[in-house]
Amino acid sequence: MIKKHTTERVLSNELIAQNTYLMKLTCSEDAMRFYRPGQFAHIEIPHARELLLRRPISINYVDFEKKEVHIAYNAIGKGTKLLSLVRPGDTLDVLMPMGNGFMLKDDMKKVWLIGGGIGIAPLKSLSCKYPDREYTAFLGYRSKECVYQIQDFESFATTHVATDDGTFGVAGFCTNLLADELSKDKPDVILACGPLVFFRTLARVIGDVPAFVSMEQHMGCGTGGCATCVCKIGGEYKKVCTQGPVFDIREVDALYE
Ligand SMILES: Cc1cc2nc3c(=O)[nH]c(=O)nc-3n(C[C@H](O)[C@H](O)[C@H](O)COP(=O)(O)OP(=O)(O)OC[C@H]3O[C@@H](n4cnc5c(N)ncnc54)[C@H](O)[C@@H]3O)c2cc1C
Ligand code: FES
């Protein structure tokens, strides 16, 4: 897998929902040639020498024609707040694409995507790599103000939306919507992204449907050298940064302990 350490130019960096930003960056065609959805960019925070660690942010979309990489992120801590201040024309030091990403076998035609909040972001990129599948998306947001990219999902997937407070779509969690649909139909595979607590619920509702999850584990180096990101997978400790972030849900031991 070609990974590239590049300096990329910021094309735009806009607020698209409550505390949610969409950044568009130039991308080296070479580095992204073998890109897989679910891989991430490891970004050095500019003008912040005290922040030694890069921040991992999933690739939200790759526009191969325009040679752009898009990322969507929440400004939650020092690093991502500084990232939100970056302006068009600024440059960023980026390692990408990182991690394994989602892989769809040829017989996985019917694909259901499920994500909550910022965990929705990497799922959109399935459409640019595997346009020939039949997609259904289950998207969960806290409230109306947090909703982003629904129209993008609607352009390639049958899309179901839930908000925790019921201000947009159906009230409740998107895992309830998924459970309802699973009582009527079954996909070939479910792909998910979000925190561990979300995967716990998912593990309870999916029955025997194959499912892969992208884990948002805390990271240090992001390149396999520090073991900050280790997680017990199938009884062995694995590095989420290089052996993940995507794993078979049934191998994530923490979900079944
Ligand atoms: C593979 C992967 C993909 C991700 N994709 C996205 C994305 O698309 N959009 C997005 O908004 N966020 C994403 N995250 C989470 C994002 O990396 C953290 O929100 C971010 O690093 C927080 O940095 P900070 O300086 O703002 O916060 P701080 O809390 O100041 O960060 C302190 C340290 O904790 C780590 N950290 C804090 N929160 C998280 C978290 N939830 N997950 C992992 N590390 C964390 C940081 O890397 C940093 O080392 C992803 C995380 C991983 C592992
Ligand atoms: S973050 Fe250092 S080994 Fe994974």
From TrEMBL:
Residues that hold FAD according to the record: R55, P56, I57, S58, G79, T80
Matching PROSITE patterns: FAD_FR
Broad EC category: oxidoreductase
One Gene Ontology term from the biological process aspect of the record: pyrimidine nucleotide biosynthetic process
Record-listed E.C. numbers: 1.3.98.1
GO MF assignments: 2 iron, 2 sulfur cluster binding; dihydroorotate dehydrogenase (fumarate) activity; flavin adenine dinucleotide binding; metal ion binding
Keyword Cell division in annotation: no
Cofactor(s) the protein requires to work: [2Fe-2S] cluster; FAD
Cofactor note: Binds 1 [2Fe-2S] cluster per subunit. Binds 1 FAD per subunit.
Domain FAD-binding FR-type residue range list: 3-104
A Pfam family annotated for this UniProt entry: DHODB_Fe-S_bind
Residues noted as binding [2Fe-2S] cluster in the record, renumbered to the chain: C221, C226, C229, C241
Alphabetized UniProt keyword annotations: 2Fe-2S, Electron transport, FAD, Flavoprotein, Iron, Iron-sulfur, Metal-binding, Oxidoreductase, Transport
Family matches, as CDD domains: DHOD_e_trans (cd06218)
Family recorded in the similarity comment: Belongs to the PyrK family.
Protein name per UniProt: Dihydroorotate dehydrogenase electron transfer subunit
Organism annotation: Christensenella hongkongensis
